[in-house]
Amino acid sequence: MKARLNLILFAAVLFVLPAFAADEPLTIAFDAFRVTTGEDGKESLTPAKTAYPGDTIEYVAVYSNSGNETLNNTQPVIPVPRGMKVDMKTVKPDAADGSIDGVVFSPLPLKESDGKEVSHDQIRALRWHLPRLSPGESEEITFRVEVDS
Q: Residue 22 CA to chain centroid, in angstroms?
């Protein structure tokens, strides 16, 4: 039997690259959900702490400014573990950057040097640009991955 992926470890490496002082409060709520489709064709989401080959997982991260000052140029980065393929049509907000190494980012869709699109199972991180997060404001980021079988 193939090993399961531990989503708690994935959540533990979730990070953000904010362009503001460390004492300004940016809170992050992160959840992972298993996506299933019922016989009626409707999708349902159930909390997921583990994932198995063939599963579709939806990640939801909510970045909130609980402080009194506006946060500018926050750049949340969510790593994508090996063995997961990003479903590009579910990346929200859709103006995101991607990386195959978690260091160098480019606007999605990622392209090879010959102009061909990078396979979505090679994406190792996604990054968003939140130009302004006012006090009390939140921004939700979501995307789905398919766990390789």
A: 22
Structure tokens, 132:
């302004």
Query: Could you write out the DSSP letters of every residue in 32-96?
Result: EEEEEE-TTS-EEEEE-SEE-TT-EEEEEEEEEE-SSS-EEEEEEEEE--TTEEEEEEEEESS-E
Q: How many residues are listed for the chain in this entry? A: 149
Beta-strand relationship, 71-79 and 125-128 = antiparallel
**Tens digits of residue pLDDT in 133-144:** 999 999 999 999
Cis peptide before 93, with omega less than 30 degrees from 0?
yes
| Domain parsing of the chain, residue ranges | 5-147
What pLDDT, in 10s, does the model give residues 30-47? 999 999 999 999 999 999
5-147: which CATH topology?
Immunoglobulin-like (2.60.40)
